[in-house]
Amino acid sequence: MRNLDETTITDAVLARHEGQKSTRLGTIMTSLVRHLHAFAREVELTEAEWEAGIRFLTEAGNITDDKRQEFILLSDTLGLSMLVTAMASRKPQGCTEATVFGPFFVSDAPAYENGADVANGAPGKPCFVSGRIVGLDGQPVANAQIEVWQADEDGFYDVQYRDLASHRARGVLCSLSDGRYFFRTIVAEPYPIPHDGPVGKMLAALDRHPWRPAHLHFMITAPGYERLVTHVFREGDRYLDSDAVFGVRSSLIADWIEHPAGVAPDGTTLDEPFCTLAFDFVLNPAP
Ligand code: BEZ
Ligand code: FE
Q1: Which ligand is nearest to the CA of 76?
Q2: Burial code of 215-242, b = ≥16 C-beta within 10 A, e = fewer?
Q3: What is the C-alpha to C-alpha distance for residues 77 and 102, in angstroms, rounded to an integer?
Q4: Is there an atom of ligand 1 within 6 Å of 210 CB?
Q5: HSE-CB of 161 using CA atoms within 13 angstroms
Q6: Across the strands, what pairs with 186?
Q7: Which ligand is nearest to the CA of 105?
Q8: Which atom of ligand 1 lies at the shortest distance from residue 217's CA?
Q9: Whose CA is nearest to atom 4 of ligand 1?
Q10: Is residue 245 lining ligand 1, measured as CB closer than 6 Å?
Q11: 100 lines ligand 1 (CB under 6 A)
């Protein structure tokens, strides 16, 4: 294959993958090459623009380590993460909807009893969260593992601090026999996704802000049910309609109800105002 030009190069590359035609890799790479070439043709990509793209990806690689994943941020801000999540979680009406996982989950979060304060010293206004885990048939799901994580009032997850002795504002709980769960934490606040790298520069160049509306992350697993990865978003947040990563679903928005200082749901008396949040999760039975 010689003398390839702009009209013959695409077919030549696809022909090189002919042997992979019936494999998943072949399907993905064939489509990727077709779309990539079509994109370059559509925008008449210049050599300088191609070089800028390579520089951008190189910077993304250079800033990525075990604490910072710039490629996931890129996928999130281009809506690819939410598209993949949406395709992977088609489920019957009535089930709690899924949304993006995000980069701040850790697998070694501390276990807590219901009623505990998962904030563990994270700064923020006190918040008491409660609800039930049920199946699509409305039956309680006992012993569901509930992982919860969130940013503090300054908009940072514990893993974004360098020198914390233990995890804060995250934990693992277990639903009770009637499906109930409850814990104390802090009020979720809006925060910007990390934007001091190439993805931040891209957002700025596109006149886009890096903010996510206030939310609480949940991952719920229980035998016999599909895993649910989702958030609860705070009603009234100014970024609900412009989430930097396109993750908001109306069914996931809830009221954080404000209360004056006084007796809290756990029976303690607080000398500062606090919030309560109630949210039930409906799990999809595993196929
Ligand atoms: C998050 O909600 O934790 C998150 C999601 C996508 C990008 C950055 C953060
Ligand atoms: Fe988050």
Answers
A1: 1
A2: bbbbbbebeebbebbbbbbbeebebbee
A3: 11
A4: no
A5: 16
A6: 126
A7: 1
A8: 2
A9: 102
A10: yes
A11: yes
Is the CB of residue 76 below 6 angstroms from any atom belonging to ligand 1? yes
Distance 144 CA to ligand 1 centre (A): 24
Write down the residue that tokens 């954080």 correspond to: 256
Q: 193: closest CA among 202, 185, 184, 181?
A: 202
| pLDDT tens across the length of the chain (287 residues) | 799 999 999 999 999 999 998 999 999 999 999 999 999 999 999 999 999 999 999 999 999 998 889 999 999 999 999 999 999 989 999 999 999 999 999 999 999 999 999 999 999 999 999 999 999 999 999 999 999 999 999 999 999 998 898 999 999 999 999 999 999 999 999 999 999 999 999 999 999 999 999 999 999 999 999 999 999 999 999 999 999 999 999 999 999 999 999 999 999 999 999 999 999 999 999 98
